Amino acid sequence: MSKYDNIDEVMRTLYESISGPPGGQDWVRDREIYHPSALITRTRIVDGKPVAFTFDYDGFVAATIPLLKDKSFYEIETKRSESHFGQIAHIFSEYVAREHLDDEDILFRGVNMVHLWNDGADCSGRWWIMSIIWDNEREGVTLPQSWL
Question: What does pTM read for this prediction?
Answer without folding.
Answer: 0.94
